[in-house]
Write a structure and sequence with these properties.
Elements: H1 9-22, H2 26-39, H3 66-88
Helix pairs in contact: 1-2
Length: 91
């Protein structure tokens, strides 16, 4: 589609500098800039998600609240540290 737009002087400078830097045409740089600004990254490959584990989580974790689980582990670790410090003190 052909249309007429008024580009601010500072924007034109940026577009021309990018065209010169990349060796792309002004038209291509302008279209890519608009696409990027309005539609996301250019030529982006779809994000690849790779699982951390080869199998699903064990069934006991299915309905677990992971924040609560982390708190429990943290509390257990704290109790372990406190009991170790208490046992190493001499009176």
């Amino acid at each position: 589609m052909r249309t007429t737009v008024t580009i601010d002087p500072d924007t034109e400078i940026l577009l021309r500098e990018e065209a010169r830097r990349t060796g792309k045409s002004f038209k291509r740089v302008l279209n890519e800039a608009i696409r990027c600004a309005l539609g996301g990254r250019l030529d982006a490959e779809p994000a690849r998600v790779e699982p951390l584990f080869s199998r699903p989580l064990p069934s006991e974790f299915d309905d677990a609240n992971f924040n609560e689980l982390a708190d429990e582990w943290d509390a257990e670790e704290t109790l372990r540290k406190v009991s170790m410090e208490g046992g190493s003190r001499s009176s």
